[in-house]
Amino acid sequence: MKIKKVMALSLAGILSFSMLTACGSKTDSKSKESVDEKVTIRLLTRMAGTSTQVGIYNDILNEFKSKHPEVTIIDDSQGDESAFNNILTTDIASGTMANIFRIQGVANLSDYIDNGLLLNLQPYLDADKEWSSGFTEGSLSYYQVPGHEGTYAIPMESGLIGVYYNEMLFKEAGIEKFPETWEQLLDAIAKFKENGIIPIAMGAQSTYMAGHLHDQIFYKWMGTEAAKLLGNREMKWTDEGVVKTLQFEKDLIDAGAFDPSAAGITDNIALTQFQQGEAAMVITGPWNISTFTDKSATPVSDNIKVAKFPYFKEKPEFKNQDMQILSPYMVSGKLEGKELDLTIELLKMLTGKEAAKRFAEEAAFLIPRTDLDLDKSKCTDLFIQNVEIGGTSEGIGVDVFDFDPLTSMQDRTRNSIVSLFTGASAQDAASVIQAEIDNAK
Questions:
Q1: First-residue to last-residue Cα distance in the chain
Q2: Cα–Cα distances in angstroms (integers) from residue 14 to residues 19, 28, 117, 207, 339, in the given order
Q3: CA angle at residue 38 from 32 to 39, to 5 degrees?
Q4: Which of 31, 91, 186, 318 has the most crowded Cβ, counting Cβ within 10 A?
Q5: Cβ pair 279, 273 in contact under 8 A
Q6: pLDDT average per 10 residues of sequence, the chain (441 residues)
Q7: Exposure pattern of 89-116 as b/e (b: 16+ CB <10 Å)?
């Protein structure tokens, strides 16, 4: 009996041990399977080529891959705009978006949201305040689409389209401080004319320059949200307030703010006038900072500063509504599980403050964050100025037509604005632009 009892206990022990071993093996196997689960993350951005910022971008991808050997990165990013657009168009048509991609402009984002192509990133912004609180307010609000709750992109590049000015010419004209208001700007223009200086360098043959001037005026008079109302047809170009913005540009022309030959001048000629000290101001973006700080290209480089476009005293609420370049990272709305989690992790690595610091100091490439602790010895003063004043933007717009679903509006708006330089009235220009919209219905 004792022998049988011992044998029974031994068998029970063996069985118990076997069951525990089997359970343990199953758990370990499942855990290992979870760790080793293969994930592919595809990116479609414009970060391609041999520039310094692309090198930093690739460093971040490599860091991510070293942390997650189970992830395969497929980077379809293209430097060439046409090649990029071809891939993006194919992706949209098939509904198979890259994990992280970009769509420039916001005009048709509502359609993409409705079709499930874009992920609402607001929950991830809310959940990680250390990451999200560093972005400038205006850069995030730009990707908040009317009619949809949430934020549908993370800004990965920005920079104020500002007024670069020659401080020495201002002082020689008796102007001690850059004009903050529209009235002060008109006064400064009159003084420069008296001194034989071109007040504002303008190459309207390159139509974007006249367009960028109108963008600045529009946002200071109407606010950045008004451009969205034009895009969704709640507002018309022939509305009184919009016509007024065109009239302000006409007022500058009539005041002699530009070279009399501005309509036939290219952007290169206008920029050269500024670089050689023949013009007091030019409206441009951060892409020209490296040229403006190069003494061989810009003999007056020591005198160049940057400021926001003046605001209207009647509209103080729009003082910090500014034009900036703004480019996004978007996330596919069809991701889930581990693939989604890892994609969000990579997105944060590409846009967090550590990445932003590297991009700024090493490449003069700005992610719109306010928590940058920049080593100023690694950045030019002009870049630092652009960063500081750009960080105060409460509303951000790119071009006004960026919100319009009609692709023809880029050329239509710019060409009509240029017509102001050749005799058209503000009302004429507005009517032609609005006709483009009405005829497309």
A1: 98
A2: 9, 21, 55, 85, 42
A3: 135
A4: 318
A5: yes
A6: 40 40 44 66 95 94 97 94 90 95 84 94 98 90 88 94 98 96 98 96 96 98 94 95 98 98 96 97 92 94 97 97 94 97 98 95 90 89 91 90 88 97 98 96 73
A7: eebbeeeebbbbbbbebbbbbbebbeee
